[in-house]
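Q: Focus on the shape:
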Amino acid sequence: MLSFESIRPIDDATLEALGFAWHTDNDQSKYIADKLLHVSDAEAEAYYEAANTLYDMYVEAAQYVIDNNLFFELGIPFNLIEPIKKSWENDVHWHLYGRFDLSGGIDGAPIKLIEFNADTPTSLFETAVLQWALLKHNGMDEERQFNNVYQALSDNFRRLITLFDDPQEFEKLYDGWKILFSSVEGNAEEETTTRLLRQIATDAGFNTGFEFLDRVRFDEEGICDAHDNPYEYWFKLYPWEEIGSAEPELAMLLEQIMLNQKAIILNPAYTLLFQSKGMMKILCDLFPESPYLLHTSFEPLKGLGHVEKRCFGREGANTRIFDANGAIIAERDGPYGNYKALYQEYVEFVKDREGHAYQAGVFFAYEACGLGFRRGGTIMDNMSKFVAHILV
């Protein structure tokens, strides 16, 4: 059975002083749980190994998709195919970070891949900062977590310059290149996530700036802030698939900027291959014996409980769960119904005594670097809670 440790929560005013504004959900319940989930060192190591192995599998699968022109199967917008290819071909287009969502890994349940949030993952602030702060706030050993996210991201920012070499060589190679960070105005969670990434990049040694997305200026000669200051790198917490489908002119400009080598975009366009849930069908084709994969198809799984998802969807929207007879167990509507559907074998999340389900999130920045949990119902949605952990 899952084991927990009750803790003293951080008060709202302190959270807001830290920059964390979304501490209370619409029903006035607290988003951050007031207890820590016990995780063993062996369980943490298993999450680490799983995420690293899965990432290598995704890299191999991405090459397979490109070699065999399978973009349509993954629901990739046609106007992003060339940016994907161009960013894949050159190592300077560095994947900064992503987050694997996993079932199992605790209470003896095997680790299974649910999806990979490779392009615009959130819950970064909670994982990297808040769960560490909870240990400190309660007088606990801050080292007793699988949580090296801040340092791993700092090193990975430096690898934008050093690539596969030692990130400590950054100072010798850095020549003042600047990173502009952007999010959509009015979304507190996305803005805080983006500003945290900016702070990490600044601490890593970069010159940085911030500009809301609608104020960034694009032309074939590069990317500038509202004051016409040019930037060599642009991080956008805005999904590539939405750029492709809703902002076709921007997609065209970004492709030209890449071709002209005027700026590098983070995360790169090829992370859209990883982001597409359709990639899990490709993984099953390439790695049928992997213990981490659930059977996934572009057709309903007859005689098997399964989940219908969209290739691009978020927070449990447009999800339906079917039992082996085809009856719906649970469902959520949402705005992603126009994206291609796929069907993944259903596996129950580990549950606590109250029946709450737990999904692990493992951040990846060059390697697996941090663990956090979401607590919710049968379908994890935007009312799920964040649960920190402690190694025991």
Observations:
- The chain has two domains: 4-275+351-391, 295-346.
